[in-house]
Amino acid sequence: MRSLLGLIVLLFAAAAAALSTTGNRLLAILDNVDDKALYSQFFGDLKARGFDVDYETPRTDGLKLSHLGERIYDHIIFFPTKVKGLGPNLTPSLLLDFVKAGGNILVAMSSTMSASTSVTNMLSELEISLPPERTGTVVDHFNYDTVSAAEAHDVLVLDAPVSTRPGLKNLFEMPDAVIAMPRVAGHVLGQSQLLTPVLRAPATAYSYNPKEQPSSVEADELFAAGSQLALVSTVQVRNSARVTVLGSAEMLQDSWMDGVKVARLGGAKVKPENREFAKRLTGWTFQEIGVLRVNSVEHRLQGQNETNPGIYRVKTDVAYTISLSEHSWDKWVPFAVPEEDSLQLEFSMLSPFHRLDLASTLVTETATIFSKNFTLPDQHGIFNFKVNYKRPFLTYIEDKQTVSVRHMAHDEWPRSYVISGAWPWLSGIATTVVGFVGFSALWMYSKPTGKVAKKA
């Protein structure tokens, strides 16, 4: 009986470990519930990773995202729909409230259907702009699939994303892989620092209204072209909730997920890695990867055992350590800072007095411990040990420990310095005492002047 109970507990723990760090409740919004058959492999992969998927349409009665202030779902996927408005339960404000409450959203678009007004307005609040007609086809006459789009050139065959910035931990990087994106709807990103493009269009691509003929489109009438067009983008808001925009919902369908082969202009047929890319994209969006956790923070006087004291003295040597872990699919692993990046500690009042690189000093099975020893400044006041680490594709870390730093007491100075250094203060006290006594004596013993008689 005990062994059976232990097995059940072990299986439950294994199942729980495979879930997202924010939950497993997933809502899929489709134009028709039967359309889920087109994405059977995609949904099968999500279920295999532990997600509990509910399929609904915008017309579903009683559809709610929250109840009594609590989220009913942890994640939402929007597929293309023919409905322009998603109803009173999926308004832009409710979707933004869902994100503010920690929910994650994946928006999959298509050039064959207009994006709904709710999704368009929500993305606009996040500084993601769709074409004015809420539809747009991205074509590329040099990077298209010569097998399935020999004439329309609307099936893009692109290299998988690569790291675009030194020191950036790109969780979508797949070297030597290609992905196929049929009927892409492009978008343009604003200036927000929370936006990060995953995949941009090639320099030869452009977006136009599919109601017009590509040959009749003027250059100044294009919505965007080249690297202005983002095909896959991410937003991580300040509470680390995530929103992802995927320009091609068709790339998630079974016909493009496995088995199909594509060929570039003048190239051989290759198998696109759409399934692996979809796994990484949903894994990041639903917080299975790229999630950082602070396990513990300690600071102490060097050589002392008391941790996290509330007060220090100026010019003392202190030691600071922080333990970080990163969630990778189904387990917590040690977090490794990229080579060209650094994790920094700030010891600050109104502005930093010290900004120091933390070094990895110990790696355990599930965490990395970063440490730094330094000397406190010769300034008393209220200070903060602060670690503020914010990078694309990783959840934000902002840990602050507040301490007081006092000045040195009189008896803490060296004896030889006390005798000479105290003379100014003792002289001031003596001068004040002598001055007060002298003034008092003069005031008490001075005879008042006599009155002058008035002349008659």
TrEMBL record:
Biological pathway: Protein modification; protein glycosylation
DNA damage as UniProt keyword: no
Ranges for domain OST48 middle: 304-447
Subcellular compartments: Endoplasmic reticulum membrane; Membrane
Topological relation to the membrane, as annotated: Single-pass type I membrane protein
Domain OST48 N-terminal positions: 25-285
Signal peptide: 1-18
Domain of life: Eukaryota
GO biological process: protein N-linked glycosylation via asparagine
Transmembrane segments: 422-445
One cellular component (GO) term of this entry: oligosaccharyltransferase complex
UniProt similarity note: Belongs to the DDOST 48 kDa subunit family.
Subunit composition and interactions: Component of the oligosaccharyltransferase (OST) complex.
Protein name per its UniProtKB record: Dolichyl-diphosphooligosaccharide--protein glycosyltransferase subunit WBP1
Organism this protein belongs to: Hirsutella minnesotensis 3608
